[in-house]
């Protein structure tokens, strides 16, 4: 027997399966809310916490916004320079690769000493996390511009790097820049808890999760905030895809379905 | 002295590791205005290199190239080029591909569209202005590339096996259309191909090149009256002669 599946609802079945499994495992096998609270009690926690939830989301969005804006503004010019000029790439690639593996967590003391206990310090941690994916995906886009397109640009009158970048390399690299930004946004959200756990402000999803709920061993609250964090990140990702990818990259439909 | 293009003692060598190979050796060539010149030769004979140097994309090791009496030093929109590979900018629609050269020149928007529409009509793509390259067939892509080169109103049109990657039927149609465009625009055309049939059908004059080092071994005027028939006896005789020539100079390949 064939059951027609509507593609639109394709995501629903796995989601419901996981949630039901969670509820059953937590309620009948583990039966210890300190180890794994039930899904239903987590949902109830979200309801209970609704008063602090919205301000926490807003503060986290502020940190995220600062970090991501900085990362984007710093990474794009560097990506153009590294992606287009082979010598610049060779000169600074080793430097980048030394700094890149240092986890954003390790930057916390530096952030506190340099910037102090404020929103910008939290933004800085997120900046560290988001900067490298944006940089690397973007410069890869610039490095991969097909030779024939560059030469076409030249014979059509692009004299000099500035025009070639403007008319050929930049538009070619835009999808890579978008991909890098999406990956950067994901890493940025991963850094929110780290960015807020050292107490730059008395709110924020990460701050509340780590400094309040965890110390009080309120695991249902912790997991509730983890879920909220995931949902907010999902929303920003969907918004980005709606605003950028679907509108700007009509021409890619022939390449990627 | 009434030559469109003059090539004098042109030599190009490439350095591979320690050895130096001459891709082109002592090439001399004059091209008359409005002439349709085909260059044929075995692969590796440097015909593409020759065209790229005329375009300004590669630099000669020695010798000089003069277009309208001026030395060619770098790429410029007065030499239109159509590449063998599909070279449309995938993020631009057909019309935006064609206007690009004019956009770079910072010509008035209305004028850009007027010229572009004319060129698109010339290559028979009216109605496809707002399509993206991925929506076009191979033959259509090359038509857009031709329209894009023509939009800059180049002094000479350089074509590097432009129909090499389209199927045989489309190829014939494109050849006919190219001749129509050539007759209407009165451009000088330099057309690289490895197909003898194509050269005999299109050219006023065929240049035969040999490989390693690449040099011109024969210039053949094609005097068959236009419009030509592909299957005429005259054409066949010319084909036969060119084939023999190529075989002779391709013994090493």
Automatic annotation (TrEMBL), chain A:
Subcellular location: Cell membrane
Main subcellular location: membrane
CDD domains assigned: TM_PBP2
Gene Ontology terms: cellular component: plasma membrane
Alphabetic keyword roster: Cell membrane, Membrane, Transmembrane, Transmembrane helix, Transport
Keyword Repeat: no
Transmembrane portions of the chain: 12-30, 36-54, 61-85, 105-136, 187-210, 222-244
Membrane topology category: Multi-pass membrane protein
Pfam families: BPD_transp_1
Keyword DNA-binding (UniProt): no
Span of domain ABC transmembrane type-1: 57-240
A single BP term in Gene Ontology: transmembrane transport
InterPro entries per UniProt: MetI-like, MetI-like_sf
Family under the similarity heading: Belongs to the binding-protein-dependent transport system permease family.
Protein name: NitT/TauT family transport system permease protein
Provenance organism: Candidatus Argoarchaeum ethanivorans
Classification lineage: Archaea, Methanobacteriati, Methanobacteriota, Stenosarchaea group, Methanomicrobia
TrEMBL record, chain B:
Recorded GO CC terms: plasma membrane
Signal peptide: none
Alphabetically ordered keywords of this record: ATP-binding, Molybdenum, Nucleotide-binding, Transport
Record-linked PROSITE patterns: ABC_TRANSPORTER_1, ABC_TRANSPORTER_2
EC number, as in UniProt: 7.3.2.6
CDD domains, alphabetized: ABC_NrtD_SsuB_transporters (cd03293)
Catalysed reactions listed for this entry: tungstate(in) + ATP + H2O = tungstate(out) + ADP + phosphate + H(+)
A single GO molecular function term of this UniProt record: ABC-type tungstate transporter activity
Domain called ABC transporter: residue spans: 5-236
Record bears the keyword ATP-binding: yes
UniProt-listed InterPro entries: AAA+_ATPase, ABC_transporter-like_ATP-bd, ABC_transporter-like_CS, ABC_transporter_ATP-bind, P-loop_NTPase
Entry similarity comment: Belongs to the ABC transporter superfamily. Sulfate/tungstate importer (TC 3.A.1.6) family.
Cited function: Part of the ABC transporter complex WtpABC involved in molybdate/tungstate import. Responsible for energy coupling to the transport system.
Protein name (Swiss-Prot/TrEMBL): Molybdate/tungstate import ATP-binding protein WtpC
Organism lineage string: Archaea, Methanobacteriati, Methanobacteriota, Stenosarchaea group, Methanomicrobia
């Amino acid at each position: 027997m064939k059951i027609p599946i509507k593609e639109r609802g394709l995501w629903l079945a796995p989601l419901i399966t996981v949630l039901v499994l969670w509820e059953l495992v937590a309620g009948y096998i583990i039966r210890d809310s300190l180890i794994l609270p039930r899904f239903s009690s987590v949902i109830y926690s979200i309801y209970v916490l609704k008063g602090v939830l919205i301000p926490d989301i807003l503060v986290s969005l502020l940190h995220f916004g600062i970090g991501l804006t900085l990362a984007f503004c710093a990474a794009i010019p560097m990506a153009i320079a590294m992606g287009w000029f082979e010598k610049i790439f060779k000169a600074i690639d080793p430097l980048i690769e030394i700094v890149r593996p240092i986890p954003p967590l390790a930057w916390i003391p530096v952030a506190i000493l340099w910037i102090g206990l404020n929103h910008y310090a939290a933004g800085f941690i997120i900046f560290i996390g988001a900067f490298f994916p944006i940089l690397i995906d973007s410069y890869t886009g610039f490095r991969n511009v097909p030779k024939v397109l560059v030469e076409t640009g030249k014979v059509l009158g692009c004299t000099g790097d500035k025009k070639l970048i403007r008319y050929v390399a930049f538009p070619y690299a835009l999808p890579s820049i978008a991909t890098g930004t999406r990956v950067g946004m994901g890493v940025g959200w991963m850094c929110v808890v780290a960015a807020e756990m050292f107490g730059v402000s008395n709110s924020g999803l990460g701050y509340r999760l780590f400094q309040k709920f965890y110390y009080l061993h309120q695991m249902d609250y912790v997991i509730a905030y983890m879920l909220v964090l995931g949902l907010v990140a999902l929303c920003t990702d969907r918004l980005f895809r709606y605003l950028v990818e679907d509108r700007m990259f009509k021409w890619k439909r022939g390449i990627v379905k | 002295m009434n030559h469109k293009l003059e090539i004098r003692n042109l030599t190009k060598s490439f350095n591979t590791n320690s050895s130096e190979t001459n891709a082109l050796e002592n090439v001399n060539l004059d091209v008359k205005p409005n002439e349709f010149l085909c260059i044929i030769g075995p692969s590796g004979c440097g015909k593409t290199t020759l065209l790229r140097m005329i375009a300004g994309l590669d630099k000669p090791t020695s010798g000089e190239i003069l277009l309208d009496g001026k030395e060619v030093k770098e790429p410029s929109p007065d030499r239109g080029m159509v590449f063998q590979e599909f070279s449309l900018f995938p993020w631009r629609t057909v019309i935006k591909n064609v206007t690009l050269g004019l956009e770079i020149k910072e010509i008035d928007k209305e004028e850009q569209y007027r010229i572009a529409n004319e060129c698109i009509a010339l290559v028979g793509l009216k109605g496809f202005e707002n399509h993206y390259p991925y929506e076009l067939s191979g033959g259509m892509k090359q038509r857009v590339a031709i329209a894009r080169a023509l939009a800059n109103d180049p002094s000479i049109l350089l074509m590097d096996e432009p129909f090499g990657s389209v199927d045989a039927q489309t190829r014939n149609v494109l050849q006919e259309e190219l001749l129509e465009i050539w007759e209407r625009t009165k451009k000088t055309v330099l057309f690289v191909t490895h197909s003898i049939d194509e050269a005999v059908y299109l050219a006023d004059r065929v240049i035969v090149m040999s490989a390693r080092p690449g040099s011109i071994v024969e210039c053949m005027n094609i005097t068959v009256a236009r419009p030509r028939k592909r299957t005429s006896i005259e054409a066949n005789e010319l084909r036969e002669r060119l084939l023999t020539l190529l075989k002779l100079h391709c013994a090493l390949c």
